[in-house]
Design a protein that fits this description.
The chain is an alpha/beta fold and about 290 residues long. The protein is built from 11 helices and 12 strands. The protein has 2 domains: about 190 residues, Rossmann fold (3-Layer(aba) Sandwich), CATH 3.40.50; about 80 residues, Alpha-Beta Plaits (2-Layer Sandwich).
Length: about 290
């Protein structure tokens, strides 16, 4: 359930049904049962009208390598029924937005995957879509390509915050960075959905990485495991990983209790809160 004005992160482990759901929504495959609605129109009944205002970026975009971005936009714009003037105006603006103006007349066959992904995002924006669907838009990109794509998505969101976006991803820090809503599934079933604040606020499970002077020991981990609100504590490499339920003030109290045990703490860092919630939810749904 993607709300208007939202950037929704669609989460779940491999095989959870994320790609299948998006393929049904974009009519790349037919649903064996049930319904899927976009803008109130059932995709399984009237795909043409349901998808009229949908821009899509698939995980691995394919293009005619002998065409340039300008020619590709002309081709896609004609399919959308756009005028030549409108195509030309939008091509310049959109390719600037996705940082591809410099390559507007270069052949796509020479582009890296990250560059093709940006062109694909540009095509998704052609003809003023009412919904954007992104299937793991940074998958397979190098760190620079990931960072560039995320920044483009942030800029897009800032430019048009009324545009609802649904993005599947298995990178939780990416979802935390970009999204304001979360939908989580496993085995095709909905586990959780809500705003980022609602999800994080309703689930106090945290993972805390504790580095102690002299290195971690089983004795220290066992002592920490007995403290209030601690679910688990175990040595993991150079740190002690602590599973913990509680808010920010509880964390401060935990740090005090650890030092009261005579353990000299070198660093005390909370790991990604969404990651903790995600792992707990997936574990419980097995």
């Amino acid at each position: 359930n993607v709300k208007k004005n939202s950037f929704t992160g669609f989460l779940g482990p491999n095989g959870a049904g994320k790609s299948t759901t998006l393929k049904i929504l974009t009519h790349l495959i037919n649903a064996s049962s049930g319904n899927a609605y976009i803008n109130g129109i059932d995709v399984t009944v009237d795909a043409k009208n349901a998808l009229m205002g949908v821009g899509t970026v698939v995980e691995t975009p394919e293009f005619y390598g002998y065409l340039t971005p300008r020619q590709t936009f002309q081709y896609m714009g004609a399919i959308y029924g756009m005028s030549k003037e409108s195509i030309a105006a939008q091509t310049e603006e959109i390719l600037a937005d996705v940082k591809m103006s410099e390559w507007i007349d270069k052949k796509l066959g020479t582009f890296s995957k990250g560059m093709r992904q940006r062109v694909s995002l540009g095509i998704a924006l052609l003809n003023d879509p009412t919904v954007i669907v992104l299937d793991e838009p940074t998958s397979g990109l190098d760190p620079r390509g990931m960072a560039e794509t995320r920044q483009i998505l942030k800029n897009l969101r800032n430019k048009n915050n009324n545009l609802p976006i649904l993005m599947s991803s298995h990178m939780l820090h990416e979802v935390t960075d970009l999204c304001d809503r979360i939908t989580m599934i496993n085995h095709g079933a909905l586990l959780m959905e809500g705003t980022m604040e609602e999800v994080l606020g309703a689930n106090n499970a945290r993972n805390i990485s504790v580095k102690i002077v002299g290195g971690p020991t089983e004795e220290a981990a066992n002592a920490i495991a007995k403290l209030q609100n601690v679910n688990s504590a175990q040595v993991s490499g150079a740190v002690i990983k602590v599973g913990f339920n509680g808010g920010d003030e509880d964390q401060m109290q935990l740090l005090k209790e650890i030092t009261d045990l005579g353990i000299k703490v070198f660093s005390f860092n909370e790991e990604d809160a969404l990651e903790s919630i995600y792992l707990n939810m997936i574990k419980e749904s097995r």
